[in-house]
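Data availability (excerpt). The following record was deposited with the supplementary files.
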Amino acid sequence: MSVVGRVACKLPSVRALQEHARLTAVQRDELARQVQQLSGQRDALKRERDELSAHCRRLDQEAGNARQRESQLAAERATVLTDRDNLERERDELRGHCERLEADLARHCEAEAAIKSQLVALEQLHKEFVERAMQLIGSDALAAQMQRDWDERARRNAMHFTNSERDDWNEQEYAATGEQNMREYIANDMENICQGMEPRAMRIVEIGCGAGRMTKGLAGVFGEVHAVDISAEMIRIARERLSGMPNVVFHHNNGMDLSELASGQFDFAMSFIVFQHIPSKAVIESYVREVHRLLKPGRLFKFQLQGGTMTSAPLSSWLGATYTRTEIEDLARRHGFELRYAHGEGMQDFWIWLFKKPATSFEPEATR
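Predicted structure:
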């Protein structure tokens, strides 16, 4: 065999080489794929490593912050514990102080109760003294004293003593206060006052007209106004101030009754800032009895008196006797009135609405 033949026999065939090359290429591709996969995994691991590194750094920072916050909380806790201890000590001190105050309060309450008891006894003694003084002085002497006092007040400053809010009234301002009282106590109560009557057809009486402060307003509303006062000097001043009002008739009374006025001829009676100056309940009751005589059945007596706790003094013509609602109810019952309304008990302006009962429903207690 030739050399070429022998070499040819030893060399692989072309087909074998091609198959080998194919297998080698497949292995190479597989290895390349595996390398690519490993590269991808390596990159993913690097990213994960970087993320974990960043997360670790954040955790380290948070741990540092937590340690710092822990130190702050420990300091705050120490402060809170100190404050708690201080507050507990303060609480204990205040508790002891409260106990002492409660003991002091109990002693003061006992003392107050004893003082109140003494005041009640003193008020009763004073009431008995006033009543006895009134008996000794007598209504006539009291009326005479009141007349002298109010004449003197009229000469000194009639406007001030009939409206003591100021002592320097001028005529315009003084008249305006009367108009204001008319709005407050008359104009807003016309249903009770008139009871269906035309005001210009009504005859009324004003007890304690003074210098005519409200009389002018009354005369502007009602047909005929009879203005009564204990002070001749007040009547003189009021007559001069209201000289242009022919429907006003002035009466100077004795300070105890209304004997100058005819019985059963009046449709309304009123009094404001008058009875609060009368210290004698007997005198006030006399006026109530007299108004019952003057009014027509069913008509209204509206007046204001002292409802506070101030105490009158004998022969005083400034601080009057005080009344409770119960006393007014008794007063109305005794003299043939129905107490329909009462406003301001316990205050200086204690307003009373008394309506005269029909004659058939009233019999004076003294005749029973």
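Summary of structural features: The chain has two domains: 64-137, 138-367.
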